[in-house]
């Protein structure tokens, strides 16, 4: 490779706001390690399931009645987040704010429905190892959603303060990456806890 | 998108003065508590980790006094069990990794030709949380409830039924807190390495130390969450009566072991690979030649890191795993020695085909190679499943782990201090005292730990606070105890040398060893801005290019000055082409505040004071927001 | 018999049975390879280092040395490790449990003692003892291992490798002794405060002697004859002892501690902490927390004469 020309003056951008930004790399690393955490939680679930004497889950798979629509709610919130980020990429402040607001609302709905699901459930975190796993895994996911909502609130505040523009919205991008990650984790959790017992027959 | 034009220039007194004012740490308390200077943070890591080494060593000394003879009554079983647990926790978590983080922190930007780490405040946070996690763990002694169930904390022994006190809650929460520190540190190393290298420093020009820390940083991202998951499960079982490990309720004790060792085995590579990297970088300096087989060694480092994820069940051979499983893990545990053997012969070849100059760092490197191999072969013995059924949980394994941990980590580290401390302080250590230091440590260590192989073969199990007379273990244990105190004396000599050199060491100058890498092109100690101008490199050995005569011509005396604020150069991931100018933050108190609030949360969870935990969490959210607010 | 004489020298490299000898053979090979490798590498390092010059010289690269890495770092270790792996697999096969066994023994780990039950198709013929295990010379016995509390590990180095006792799991191991003798065992997994004092005695005897021993262990406790022993029996069966201990054939039916029906026949007490002599037994009952602090046995507070009577009775339980 040729050596870069350092004898002559060079014009370089200051603080790139795309995937070459260190902050973006940082969020990706954070996502990687948090994804590993959920992978290990699910390992616990499948390990205990594989050695369970008797049915697993012990009292039949968890109900889809609330969880399935809730999954769609969370997926929709990823959609609105994507929409918000595309908007600010083109400099559209109004749509950015609208998209962020919708995402927060949908995320809050998701958490609320999950609370209802917990309340209605006929087993708790102390109902055997299954209950402990179910509540810990979905609870940690819910905590990640809550953190995501906090991030969205801060970003929304900054959006209203006019911090963002086309080409200058790294915080929105990073929050979007985190939010999509939380969504993907939910798909993994949902598939493992709610769907896989039904698929096993 | 703003742009700026960078004009290469040569260093000048005015430039240095301007950069000094831009980069110097703020005065007073703000500077002390809020500094983001990676060199200060690195030195803090080194000092703190070394203090934990001393604490762990005192714990071990007490243990060795108790075990010097059969049926001694110096320590009762509970005291002994707390000591051996905290000895393990201290050495493995509070010394072995942070000491390497300290060197990495100090050296990373210097090796890269950069002015700072990618996330200077995150760097400060990783130190504060490390310090607070260590204090959190040790505060358990103040209430007489230090963790006492082994550093590996197997359930059900650590469940609420059998460990009703706070001991294991200190353990679980302290380790979770520590994982925060280690993880953010790893993120910093990865991102800095991929975005902030000097122009021309392609990945094949990185020092092996960087390959080591980079590999382990990725390992950290993927291994530490297993420990977090295990500790979360343990804490929830103990505190909220959940049932992850309770066989009567669908749980299983082996779930803990799997999760713990899926973390634990990569962790032992995390605490040795960077040390091996340091030796790969300083040994060649004393052989007056570049490392033999750089590519082999770099690949060996990465493959060890990856393979390290595939051997964990060799800690579980006696638990009743199916034969197919144990055979696989046995094979994998043997395969993983191959990259290490590659590294060993690279080092030997470097000495053989070089012109060795015996200075203290060379002695430590040579000793390290011998101890490495002893630890490696005892590891192969334990990898052979059926023989491991005899060896596991005996003093043979204690011998093995100390040869690999002290031999590979500590000896490499002390050699690294002799090599790099002059860069940090500007003063050389005494060469004469250094030789005494090495030999006393080497003799003492082998006197202590070589007999342990025999003690284990003669049937002495681990983790026993006393043993009966007449089993043939008495003399061996006495020799081990004597050796351990000789070894401790050797470490004391190191501390004396460090103390002596502060005032009496010869002035080091920029490059006392005639070493090849970028950190030796700047003054000792380095100015706060590291490089007056950003260098451009064309080889692995910028400062040896003239002598090696291979045509490379790095430019160290002309480069971008980046002096309109705290700025450094961002470059592309693989080939290090200049890409952007990065602005670095000033000193800040947010990292300290976040570290404190996380610790408050931990104490709240420890004591069941949920209001405290909630307050700590809320403060943490505030601190993060304030930190990230532009 | 003092403690010193009661405990033989343990050693995994001096196997006394077919479950352990393949392991020891493999172990000797590994140790031999290890010593050779360490000596060779140390010699290389030393020789290379001894070519050192006094003064530092200029830097140069010779371009040689890669063959060392390939041969020493890859080829030779691969050969050695392949041999070791093949030997490992063969040893696994050689040490695998035989199809039939002379007895099936259930071993349940407790903190900090070993419950030993000789299973039988007739429940009445199940012999229960503690901390001591007998087996017939030249015949394999099957061990079914589990735990009543935390993880322990069954380890008699001269007869077999370790197998863990894990609550919620049933592990299987096997033992066989080639010659008669007394073999030392210990718990091989940290199990808490008195993990250091959880020894096990394994006695191998000729098959006829073993059968006589087992028959006697199956029987209920003999009725005492002497006045002191009778008084002791009264104290044991109606006092605090019966809350934790069983003496078959009496009303003492506690299940928390070791079965005492034939305690007099055992070589050691308290899982190896105390010699089974009049002095040892007396000292143990008088002050268990002093000899094994943290163990589950409390000081029951017997007076001098009461203690003597209890000891007299227990001594008759052979």
Give a concise summary:
With 201 residues, chain A is mostly helical. Helix content of chain A is 71%, strand content 2%.
Instruction: Give the class of chain B from helix and strand content and strand pairing.
Output: mainly alpha
Mean pLDDT of chain C: 92
Major sheet description of chain C: 5 strands, mixed
Helix and strand sequence of chain C? HHHEEEEEEEEEEHHHEEHHH
Q: CATH superfamily assignment of the largest domain in chain C?
A: Cupredoxins -  blue copper proteins
Report, as a whole number of angstroms, the end-to-end distance of chain B.
16 Å
> How many H/I helices of chain C?
9
Enter the CATH topology name of the largest domain in chain B. Answer: Cytochrome C Oxidase, Chain A
Helix content of chain C: 25-40%
Mean pLDDT over the residues of chain B: 96
Quote the beta fraction of chain C. 15-25%
- Count of individual beta strands of chain B: 5
Low-confidence stretches of chain C: 1-8
Q: Extract low-pLDDT stretches of chain B.
A: none
Task: Count the DSSP helices of chain B.
Answer: 20
Q: Which geometry of chain C do the CA atoms define? A: elongated
CATH class descriptor name of the largest domain in chain C? Mainly Beta
Q: How many domains is the backbone of chain C divided into? A: 3
